[in-house]
Design a protein that fits this description.
The complex is a heterodimer of chains A (269) and B (325). By secondary structure, chain A is of the alpha+beta class. Chain A is built from five helices and nine strands, in the order E-H-E-H-E-H-E-E-H-E-E-E-E-H. In chain B, strand 3 (70-76) and strand 4 (83-88) form a beta hairpin. Classes of the chains: A alpha+beta (269), B alpha+beta (325).
Chain lengths: 269, 325
């Protein structure tokens, strides 16, 4: 699959107005969404790459192929899970065992806490984005992508086994619109307060305690189309033309443009 | 999740398939049973191995070859709602060796050769994501995973023999080269079982009666409260059923590689029992929260009613089909 996108920076004072413009253009109410985004980094045992130089038992062709493979790119990848506003600042689900054992009947036990965030039931998707293609004639950001549903709950054990280390996490808040075949996502990045954690958080802090990544509070507008078959030049071309069409329609409000390729580099060094 | 056993008969120069023999022996051993196929089944397995295994063992290096790590993708037509991924756990991360402590221990320290292969992590994912993830690993993880072989049972046969369901099929290797590998047999116990009495947990984490799960329990003929089953009962049940399956297989008199009580078998059943006991001990676990965020990326269509069904038989298939490559 390929993702073709155009981006724009939206200052915070323009946010409200742009939401209304987009609602008018797409004839739909914005769909508000919050996402947890976990960043994982691929790893391999150090000292493996380049070691093949000394082996004499391999055919020259095999050796080249092997070297190419072992020195291939490794990537950062994201694991994304939808959350709701109620999940923030809420407690973990009450463990009945400890509650029973505690014999603490002073407070009315009939009323469960208003909401709870259960990490064990959090759905996740593995979202991979390659570095944007270089030297394309088209003026859109085009990159190879894949999206796969993962099991609910703790993904770290499986990700570790697959070769990925948890690095850090953040939250994205934004609004999604759909306009024909184009998805429009107006969003910004929130950081967790306090220290970095070495594992994904099992509870989320209150939303008001999250800090803005971009201090001014500005938003990013991403308009994108996902093309199933990226090798089909015709559909790729149609997709970028549709994006250019949207760029024209929004010209008076925002300037949609291609992103700097290296700023979207997902390769792990 | 029924209790099963899997047998594999490798092909040899004299006989590429044992299908004929097993069918004949089944007929001979169970003369009272009408041996007509009740259905078809299929399987596909892709085996990936970590890249250190690709390097030739160089004679002048003292390093002991690392334990190979595997990632196996398996799909079974009798568990259509998900595919299985079974992956070796990474070796325990040792703290980075301090460079200054130059003296690197006694050189002749004999590395334990019998070190067991690392434990495995089971994951199940919806069919739509199964191929995507495989592609991801072969594209983005080339430096550490490499696709070594693909096996398929394209056209298996299902028989019902008494309290057992028997799935037979020829295993063909389709990658890297096409060849015949042998014959695989799954034997599933269909009789009453304590394991089937544990209800399935629902989407919201509660344990329901009245939906599909209770039908299973009735079919199994066992009604038990969560307090009446302990984990030791599960172990005993697996052991007892394993001996039934072995007895069944013994009547056929065919030599084969066996996978029944392999590591981690029954793990998901015990997890489910634990969750059931926990849910049963509380007053209620009804979660009224509206999952409105779910619609954004977690498509409802992907929701799997029982993500862990078939994990045991998947492990057994993978155990016998993990050829040393």
């Amino acid at each position: 699959m390929h993702e073709q996108s155009l981006f724009a920076s939206v200052p915070v004072h323009q946010h409200h107005e742009l939401l209304q413009q987009l609602a008018g253009l797409t004839a739909m109410q914005p769909r508000h969404c919050l996402e947890r985004r976990l960043i994982f980094k691929a790893y391999r045992k150090p000292g493996l790459a380049g070691r093949t130089g000394a082996s004499q038992d391999l055919q020259q062709g095999d050796l080249q192929r092997l070297n190419k493979m072992l020195n291939g790119n490794m990537y950062y990848t994201q694991v994304i899970g939808p959350v709701s506003e109620l999940d923030f600042g809420s407690t973990a689900p009450v463990d009945h065992d400890t509650q029973m054992a505690g014999m603490d009947d002073s407070k009315p036990s009939g009323s469960p806490s208003p909401s709870s965030y259960d990490y064990e039931r959090q759905p996740w998707k593995l979202e991979f984005r390659d570095i944007p293609e270089a030297g394309t004639r088209s003026a859109v950001t085009s990159r190879l992508m894949s999206s796969a549903t993962l099991p609910r709950g703790d993904v770290v054990q499986a990700m570790n086994a697959w070769g990925y280390h948890f690095t850090t996490e953040y939250v994205v808040e934004g609004d999604m619109f759909i306009h024909n075949d184009i998805a429009i996502f107006l969003h910004r990045v929130l950081h967790y307060p306090g220290d970095e954690s070495s594992l994904p958080r099992r509870q989320l802090p209150a939303l008001k305690d999250m800090t803005l990544f971009e201090k001014s509070g500005s938003y990013v507008l991403q308009a994108f189309i996902i093309v199933q078959d990226g090798s089909n030049q015709e559909t790729m071309k149609t997709a970028s033309q549709h994006l250019f069409g949207l760029r024209e329609q929004l010209k008076s409000a925002v300037l949609l443009e291609q992103a700097d390729r290296l700023s979207l580099d997902t390769r792990a060094k | 999740m029924p209790i099963t056993g899997v047998y594999f008969i490798p092909s040899n120069p004299n006989a590429s398939t044992a299908l004929q023999i097993i069918t004949e022996r089944l007929r001979a051993a169970f003369p009272d049973e009408e041996l007509t196929p009740i259905g078809r089944w299929g399987l596909e397995q892709k085996l990936l191995r970590d890249t250190p295994g690709l390097l030739p063992a160089s004679s002048n290096s003292n390093k002991k070859p690392p334990n190979p790590r595997y990632m196996q993708f398996l799909s079974l037509t009798h568990y259509p709602t998900h595919g299985f991924i079974y992956t070796s756990e990474p070796e325990k991360q040792t703290p980075a060796p301090n460079q200054n402590q130059g003296a690197q221990g006694p050189i002749n320290a004999i590395a334990p050769d019998h070190s067991p292969s690392p434990p495995m992590v089971m994951t199940t994912i919806p069919p739509s994501s199964y191929g995507t993830l495989f592609q991801h690993f072969t594209y983005a993880c080339q430096p550490f995973w490499t696709h070594r072989l693909t096996l398929a049972v394209p056209n298996g046969i299902v028989y019902e023999v008494g309290d057992f369901r028997v799935r037979l099929g020829d295993v063909r290797q389709t990658f890297p080269t096409a060849r015949v590998r042998g014959t695989v047999v799954e034997i599933e116990w269909r009789g009453p079982s304590v394991v089937e009495a544990i209800p399935m947990d629902r989407e919201d984490g509660s344990f329901g009666v009245g939906d599909g799960s209770s039908v299973d329990a009735e079919a199994a003929g066992i009604h038990l409260a969560s307090s009446a089953i302990e984990e030791s009962d599960i172990d005993a049940e697996y052991a007892a059923t394993a001996s039934l399956i072995r007895e069944f297989w013994g009547r056929l008199g065919v030599e084969a590689r066996e996978a029944i009580l392999i590591p981690n078998v029954g793990m998901e059943v015990k997890d489910r029992l634990r969750r059931w006991k926990k849910a049963g001990s509380g007053v209620d676990t009804v979660d009224t929260r509206v999952d409105n965020a779910g619609s954004m990326i977690g498509e409802r269509a992907d929701e799997d009613p029982d993500p862990w069904s078939g994990a045991d038989v998947a492990r057994q298939f993978m155990e016998v089909l993990r050829f040393n490559r």
